């Protein structure tokens, strides 16, 4: 019998499912083989792992000595001698303390016996369980009588004494030394491995790069990140342990506990063992305090000292020093500690964190193992807007509100609307037809209304009562269009602009005639649609026919940025097209300001202005060598970031000066005294950074209403802008290093930090002084805020 044919089109699906099952089975088999190899090969792998861990800690010291002119062999020898000397000195002190304690321990027997007798006497009093214990004793006696028949043995049992055979001194020595042979052999192997790794570090790195294969940039980044994270973790662990051990030893010395150096050293060493190390290190000083003091004061003071040190270390020192040095989540740390302890015992517990960091880095840079980063990493598995969207789908708006409030505390209400709120609505628009059921759509609509209402209640706008609205936001068609309008209206109200949201309807003349827009200066039309042109064009045409002087702004929220160019404002009959809450708010503020004929400048510290002017007076901008150096720095920046233009701009007393560039740029004026290109006063670039003195990243200039009309950027065919401030040693901004590209372009965090580093090099070349360090992970300003003038 011929089997029936499968449904048409199901063959590739079945093959895909079978392929997924085969890959899953292969992954499980490989994982089992790796775990078995780790377990059965621990005799070889444990010394290697310990050696690599120690080499990560000692590697920076060797590199520092090599940079000072020593050969690598001499640097390794000096490092190992230093480490062994420190260990020997600490071991000597600990040995002296142990010898002293061993001589004093017999004198504490009386105190221990008296305390135990006192505790026994206290326990003999009538207690809660005394009746129960008597009942149990009675039952045991009755059972014994029944089993034994009530008869007692006539002949008492005789004690048998076994006399051992005499043992020779050699056998005694072997008996004592045999437990020490294995650790000593392991320590020797680790020492040899450490020396070899430090000597051949470059060769080992090359071999690891060959094993990783593939992209050389990605493999190099993986090794650098693993080395940096593990080295930082070990250094911070050492600092934390030392800052714990020193107060521990001093406190025990003041309390009077013998062997304070021994217990401080033991605490520093034991704290390398996660979770159980601090508990074990606390047992010994507490036990000795119990044995030394006839009373209980020493025990209580020792316990209080340990408790205070643990609280300070766990809640102050560790969060301050560790930060995100490992990038591992708490759950992954505990799971890793359990796994490595089960595989390698106590040594695995000590090595669990560094080994798991290596797995995290491997998962980050090898796409096939990206599941490791998802399981082990501390970064959220879902983005913030995805978490809010999921909570709304799950009918849990309260949790979504909590997530939103956390985001607002970090940034602002407007920034939350721009980054998270609109992304939630965009995702809802994508899933509206393809994935969502009617129940899901209702949950999202109701939950989003609750979320916006809660934000408005917690962050009310301070507007005069009865203020006539100047801006009206009209939804295009869907519920999410109305919710986008509410976000924009609230953002404008927080900026002091009276705004209202109208009910959504249709593009008919009757609907437009029923709108109450008297006194309104700007109308924003909100559309979440991939093809909004027809509806937007009809609505704008009817609005203009009814209110000719009305300014119309189209909010095309669902259109990708790269496709916005084909939705021009003139083609759709609008005054402007915006794609985000931030852009819409800035565009509206600019239109209102232009209607009032107002300009807003920067309020600067006069001392900063004077310091900048004095510094630039000392810089010979007409020096050919200086100009050549600045041009070389601009060429390097353009090559590194692969952009069309890199410009170095200084802020002069009256206008900005172009003092370096990677290519010839169209001139807009020449200062005959400085012999450098000057920028028009109303087209400044570097002064935009003075408001917040941090990097300015504008992926698409067309989306920024201020920069889109900048004459300099238009002359230089700019579409994207990234600028980093050039600061002198006292923090005063001298100008900016600007990257300009003719296509839409964004920078990652690491690229922004690199741009700030290059800007610091330019500042050093101008002033001859070391520039202040960059601030690190602070978020860059995404765009200019208001029209800013060059300071006088």
From TrEMBL:
The chain crosses the membrane at residues 21-40, 46-66, 73-96, 174-199, 238-266, 272-292, 337-362. It holds the Pfam family GAF. Residues 768-780 have a biased composition (Low complexity). Keywords: Cell membrane, Membrane, Transmembrane, Transmembrane helix, Transport. It is a multi-pass membrane protein. Signal peptide: none annotated. Residues 765-792 are annotated as: Disordered. Residues 625-776 form the GAF domain. Gene3D superfamilies: 3.30.450.40. Belongs to the autoinducer-2 exporter (AI-2E) (TC 2.A.86) family. This is GAF domain-containing protein. It comes from Paracoccus acridae.
């Amino acid at each position: 019998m011929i089997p029936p044919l499968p449904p048409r089109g199901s063959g590739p699906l079945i093959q895909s499912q079978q392929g997924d099952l085969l890959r899953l089975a292969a992954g499980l088999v490989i994982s089992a083989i790796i775990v078995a190899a780790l377990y059965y090969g621990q005799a070889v792998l444990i010394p290697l792992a310990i050696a690599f861990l120690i080499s990560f800690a000692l590697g920076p010291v060797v590199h520092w000595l090599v940079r000072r002119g020593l050969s690598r062999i001499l640097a390794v020898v000096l490092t190992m001698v230093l480490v062994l000397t420190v260990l020997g000195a600490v071991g000597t002190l600990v040995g002296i303390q142990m010898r002293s304690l061993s001589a004093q321990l017999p004198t504490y027997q009386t105190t221990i016996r008296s305390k135990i007798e006192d505790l026994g006497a206290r326990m003999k009093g009538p207690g809660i369980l005394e009746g129960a214990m008597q009942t149990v004793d009675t039952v045991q006696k009755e059972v014994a009588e029944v089993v034994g028949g009530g008869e007692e043995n006539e002949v008492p049992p005789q004690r048998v004494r076994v006399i051992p055979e005499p043992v020779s001194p050699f056998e005694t020595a072997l008996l004592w030394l045999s437990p020490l042979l294995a650790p000593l052999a392991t320590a020797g192997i680790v020492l040899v491995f450490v020396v070899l790794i430090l000597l051949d570090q470059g060769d080992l790195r090359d071999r690891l790069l060959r094993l990783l294969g593939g992209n050389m940039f990605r493999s190099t980044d993986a090794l650098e990140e693993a080395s940096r994270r593990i080295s930082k973790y070990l250094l911070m662990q050492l600092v934390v342990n030392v800052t714990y051990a020193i107060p521990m030893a001093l406190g025990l010395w003041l309390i009077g506990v013998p062997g304070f150096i021994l217990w401080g050293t033991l605490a520093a060493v034991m704290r390398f063992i996660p979770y159980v190390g601090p508990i074990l290190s606390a047992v010994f000083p507490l036990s000795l305090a119990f044995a030394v003091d006839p009373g209980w004061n020493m025990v209580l003071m020792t316990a209080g000292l340990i408790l205070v040190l643990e609280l300070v270390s766990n809640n102050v020192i560790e969060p301050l020093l560790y930060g995100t040095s490992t990038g591992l989540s708490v759950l992954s740390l505990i799971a890793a500690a359990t796994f490595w302890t089960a595989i390698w015992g106590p040594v695995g517990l000590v090595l669990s964190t560094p080994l798991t960091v290596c797995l995290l880095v491997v998962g980050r840079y090898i796409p096939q193992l990206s599941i490791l980063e998802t399981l082990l990493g501390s970064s959220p598995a879902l983005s913030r807007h995805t978490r809010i969207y999921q909570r709304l789908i799950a009918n849990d708006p309260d949790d979504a509100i909590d997530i939103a409030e956390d985001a607002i505390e970090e940034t602002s209400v407007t920034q939350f609307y721009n980054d998270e709120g609109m992304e939630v609505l965009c995702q809802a628009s994508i899933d509206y037809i393809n994935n969502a059921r009617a129940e899901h759509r209702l949950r999202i609509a109701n939950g989003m209304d609750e979320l916006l209402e809660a934000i408005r209640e917690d962050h009310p706008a301070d507007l005069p009562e009865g203020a006539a609205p100047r801006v009206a936001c009209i939804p295009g068609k869907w519920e999410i269009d109305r919710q986008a309008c509410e976000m924009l209206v609230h953002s404008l109200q927080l900026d002091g602009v009276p705004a209202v949201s109208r009910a959504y309807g249709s593009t008919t003349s009757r609907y437009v005639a029923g709108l109450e827009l008297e006194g309104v200066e700007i109308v924003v039309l909100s559309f979440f649609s991939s093809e909004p042109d027809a509806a937007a064009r009809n609505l704008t045409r009817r609005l203009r026919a009814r209110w000719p002087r009305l300014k119309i702004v189209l909010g095309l929220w669902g259109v990708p940025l790269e496709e916005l160019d084909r939705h021009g404002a003139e083609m759709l009959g609008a005054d402007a097209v915006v794609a985000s809450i931030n852009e819409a708010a800035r565009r509206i503020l600019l239109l209102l300001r232009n209607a009032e004929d107002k300009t807003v400048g920067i309020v600067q510290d006069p001392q900063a202005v004077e310091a900048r002017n004095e510094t630039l007076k000392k810089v010979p901008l007409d020096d050919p060598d200086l100009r050549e150096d600045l041009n070389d720095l601009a060429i390097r920046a353009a090559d590194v970031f692969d952009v069309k233009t890199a410009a170095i701009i200084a802020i002069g007393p009256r206008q900005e000066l172009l003092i370096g560039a990677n290519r010839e740029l169209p001139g807009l004026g020449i200062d005959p005294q400085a012999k450098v290109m000057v920028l028009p006063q109303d087209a400044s670039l570097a002064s935009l950074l003075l408001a917040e003195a941090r990097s300015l990243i504008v992926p698409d200039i067309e989306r920024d209403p201020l920069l889109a009309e900048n004459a300099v950027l238009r002359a230089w065919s700019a579409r994207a802008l990234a600028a980093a401030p050039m600061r002198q040693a006292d923090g005063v901004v001298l100008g900016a290093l600007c990257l300009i590209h003719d296509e839409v372009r964004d920078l990652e965090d690491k690229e922004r930090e690199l741009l700030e580093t290059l800007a610091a090099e330019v500042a050093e070349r101008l002033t001859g002084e070391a520039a202040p360090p960059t601030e690190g992970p602070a978020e860059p300003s995404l765009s200019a805020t208001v029209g800013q003038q060059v300071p006088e």
